[in-house]
Amino acid sequence: MSRSSELLRRDRAAVLHPYAPPGTPGPLFPVAHASGVRLTLADGRELIDGMSSWWAAIHGYNHPVLNAAVAKQLQDLGHVMFGGLTHEPAVRLCERLVEITPAPLTRVFLSDSGSVSVEVALKLAIQYQQARGRGAKHRFLTVLGGYHGDTLGAMSVCDPVNGMHSLFRGVLSEQLFAPLPGPRFHEPFASTSIDAFEALLAKHAHEVAAVILEPVVQNAGGMRFYHPEYLRRVRALCDAHDVLLILDEIATGFGRTGKLFGCEHAGIHADIMCVGKALTGGMMTLAATLVTEQVSEAIARSEPGVFMHGPTYMGNTLACAAALASLDLLFASDWCARVSAIEAQLTRELAPCPSLRGVADVRVLGAIGVVEMHAPVDLSVLQPAFVDAGVWLRPFGRLVYLMPPYVINEADLSILTSAVCSVLEEGG
Ligand SMILES: *Cc1c(COP(=O)(O)O)cnc(C)c1O
Fold first, then answer.
1. Which residue owns the Cα nearest ligand 1 atom 6?
2. Which among 313, 332, 351 is the end of a domain?
3. 30 lies in which domain range?
4. Which of 75, 194, 216, 340 is deepest in the core (most CB within 10 A)?
5. Could you tell me the pTM of the whole model?
6. What residues line ligand 1, using a CB cutoff of 6 Å?
């Protein structure tokens, strides 16, 4: 038995994978190395990465600068608790995040994953409203088609169908859902597009702590790109109705949509903002929740005077060092030009896809390319077909999508887009 199939046998006996049935022989590929934009499987095959490990590995894998930053930090100080102690990497990272995010966010709560940063955002909003004597404002309003993570609070604001709310009925808090945000990013905005959202917010403002949205791009909930004017209107309505705005930039943050943060397309800011995923360039698990002085002050001024949250691995030194190095790399690169070049190439090379059988829509924004099918794809067919074509892509539902590392070159990106075209042509 080869090492690779032996590993698969052991995996099936002991390991649970995300959104996959236990122990079944679905497609699963042992990976041995990753460097630049290439993953090397245990059987020696090389794949060009089109996923950035779920939005994270924006500089590619095994980056010497990120590796060195973590190694150096390890020499000085590994993980220590963050209660009662502080350290240079965490302080520098929080300062840096405040500096690069749209004003007026002034304070940062570090946590270990995107879902936790969303839980933190929801709890901050509730504590803020309580601190102002508005305890009745404890629900959340969002839109259909969103994704905010897999923990219970985050799930409650995910799309009710995609987020399988029926499975967890009675456990998840019941939140308020406006229709899908629209129109699409490049279509003309009609002022009626915001009517249903506005009516829902007006009706429930007395019980709503905050609106939570992914700015401009709805990610795992359907890979939809919506109009920045929708966001501008949401910001104004939140102010008019005395409701906080939480922006979940976990997927859109750090340049993916062509702006450093998705909300910059609309020229607005959040009261509470979540970042994660590309924060460490895919090196370590880390997320952050940023808040305005107004929110943090109000919580500090009233009972119990503290924010009630504290992850064990909060402010992990290695993750903070990786994040600082990743931000340095990002700003030292011409990321904006890189992302626009990827956008132009994706637009050009995915242009033939709409004529393929089974394709419903093709759309591109920043370094994100999406081919939406009429029917859900069969992963057990498509995944091995992409691997045979030499690329790593992981479709879900009706969506085949690409979000390569920003460092990908033109030739490698062409291999990705031609694999999409050829695999869908044969199997779509
Ligand atoms: C991935 C994601 C999350 C959850 O982050 P995890 O690190 O997987 O917990 C939350 N919100 C958005 C928009 C995401 O894309």
1. 114
2. 332
3. 3-62+334-425
4. 216
5. 0.97
6. 113-115, 118, 147-149, 214, 219-220, 248, 250-251, 276-277
